[in-house]
Design brief:
globular; binds iron/sulfur cluster; three-stranded antiparallel beta sheet; single chain
Amino acid sequence: MRVHYNFPDIPQMKDFSFDVENVNDKLITKFHGSKAFLFGPPLKLYFSYYGSKRLRPVMKREDGNIYSLYLPPIPSQAHVHHMETLIRNWLFKEARPLAVTVAVTSRCQLECVHCSAASPHKAGPDMSRAEIEKVINESVKLGVSNITFTGGEPLLRNDIEELVALVAQLNTVALIFTNAMALSEKKALALKEAGLTAVFISLDSPEPAEHDRLRGWKGSFQAVREGVQNAIRAGLAVCLSTYATNESVKKKALSKITALAAEWGVHEISVFDAIPTGRLIQNEDIMLTEGNHLAICKEAKELNRRYNGRLRIVTQSWTNTRSGIAILIGCIAGHLQFHVTSDGEFTPCDFTPLTFGNVKSNSVKNLWRKVIEHSAYNHHCRKCRMQTAAFRKKYIESIPSDANLPYPIAMIEMTDSPELCPRETELITRNL
Ligand code: SF4
């Protein structure tokens, strides 16, 4: 498959375009125009990384190979859109988001011990279909090429297929985070037909009884197993989404989950850190030690080598390091991503209980601007802000204990503190 990449909306790149073709899993690039000598070499380097021996695709599809579920298939129209945002940010110092997570409902069948969406008070009514469509359209216009529906449990929304279809029509990748309880064969097929790329299915433990205990429902592990099979049969890419604790690192849970994932035919495993937020906001003792962050990176590196070409393991511990391209990722809140809660509150990420306003009364562009101009988010931060003591002290510990979440950041005194997090890759300008 060959895809033509051009960026007519970037004035400096009007006289430049290129083609990317997948030939036997190698990405062949051909550059055109008078600026080819300037932009060609770095782009050639970028594409040669994908399809190299070190990074084999985890899924081969008609519309481009998938190297990670955090990236659009390559080459594809969604990837053209993704590249446009990367180029704007990297070459022209703009500050556009690549991804958004949208909670489409607060309803859920389960009561997980660690739920990050839970608030001490009930969330307001779920956004209407028109309100979610507004978020989708405005986000894509701003540069987003990856929209993930979360909840609650997104499959409880009757119009989830229509929402997925809208995202896919906009040359954007649609993903869903689910507990798999409602991921029947019929549902998986309907989602695939609507244009869904992948499901992220939550698995808290490789031990069925422990997963059921953490999810508060006997049979939830079995639902995961069946949901994975239904999704794979429907042609969807599948990621097992899990989180690491100091206890799970000791038990080598990641190796066990990886063995299970390989047996089930899963394409990726995404390992988040245990973060004191939602139902566990007061439990700072759940945070991983520095030694365990390193242990996860080491274990994942070894597993990625072993399973290269079958499945990929992506860990938050790694994205928060300085190794390789991780240094460009770091904390993505207000840098590459934002989150919209089920009742429309605009937060820097789905683990940060601070709101900058509501999409029902403000545009996505205005709210994003508020985030990137705020002193807590106007710079790149390698470490997870929600796991940084100074950030928590200023922004999380100041939230009144009886407040509804997310709490308006404007209510917390705005003072510039250089110690909030290490400013390593300062952005020179933050344009939109
Ligand atoms: S604060 Fe940053 S690193 Fe931490 S969970 Fe949110 S986006 Fe990820």
